[in-house]
Amino acid sequence: MKDKPPKIEFPCDYPIKIIGEASPDYTNEVLSIVNRYDAKCTLANSMLRPSRNGKYESLTIKFWALNEQQIASMFAELKQVKAVRMVL
Question: What pTM was computed for the model?
Answer without folding.
Answer: 0.87
